[in-house]
């Protein structure tokens, strides 16, 4: 056996890679994440979400009237079954951030039902923003 080969029993011990989780996009540009939306710990909000899943910080998503905007994107597996991104606006309350983090931890769109309380934040972005 060469150094590149592994015994069959060691190959069976390896676990397959975990599926990619859902992802979160946090707008942090002209309005979102700025002093224009006062009284919000923007860094704390981002950190809270980062504890759960990969977070991408985005430039302006062009829906400033909904600042602070968070988009929860389904995992690839959930997207393959029809799940779509969920846009959440006016997320300016730490409790809302906690609700989003809990949903994401449970699997997010297409895996776990969106908590009813988040219906208050869900909006449909204009076509140009999608």
Written account of the structure:
- It is a single chain.
- Mean pLDDT is 85; it is low at 1-16.
- The protein has helices at residues 8-13, 42-50, 76-80, 94-106, and strands at 23-27, 55-58, 70-73, 86-88.
- It has one domain (20-124): Glutaredoxin, CATH 3.40.30.10.
- The protein has 4 helices and 4 strands, in the order H-E-H-E-E-H-E-H.
- Helix 2 links the parallel strand 1 (23-27) and strand 2 (55-58).
- The radius of gyration is 18 Å and the shape is globular.
Gross morphology is: globular
Q: How many angstroms does the end-to-end distance come to? A: 53 Å
Quickly name the level 1 CATH class. Alpha Beta
In the CATH classification, which architecture applies? 3-Layer(aba) Sandwich
| Major pleated sheet | 4 strands, mixed
Low-confidence stretches: 1-16
Which whole number gives the mean pLDDT?
A: 85
Number of domains: 1
Helix content: 25-40%
Helix/strand order, N-terminal first? HEHEEHEH
- CATH topology: the name is Glutaredoxin
Give the spatial strand order of the biggest sheet: 2-1-3-4
If helices are DSSP runs of H or I spanning 4 or more residues, what is the number of helices? 4
Name the CATH superfamily classification.
Glutaredoxin
Radius of gyration: 18 Å
Query: Strand fraction band?
Result: 5-15%
Q: Quick one: how many beta strands?
A: 4
Helix-strand makeup class: alpha+beta
């Amino acid at each position: 056996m060469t150094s590149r080969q592994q015994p069959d029993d060691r190959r069976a011990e390896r676990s397959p890679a975990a599926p990619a989780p859902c992802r979160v996009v946090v707008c942090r540009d002209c309005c979102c994440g700025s002093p224009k939306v006062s009284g919000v710990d923007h860094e704390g909000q981002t950190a809270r979400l980062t504890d759960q899943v990969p977070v991408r910080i985005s430039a302006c998503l062009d829906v400033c009237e909904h600042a602070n905007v968070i988009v929860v994107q389904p995992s690839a597996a959930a997207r393959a079954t029809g799940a779509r991104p969920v846009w959440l606006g006016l997320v300016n309350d730490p409790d809302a951030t906690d609700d989003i983090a809990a949903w994401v931890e449970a699997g997010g769109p297409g895996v776990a039902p969106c908590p009813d309380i988040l219906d208050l934040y869900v909006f449909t972005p204009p076509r140009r923003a999608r």
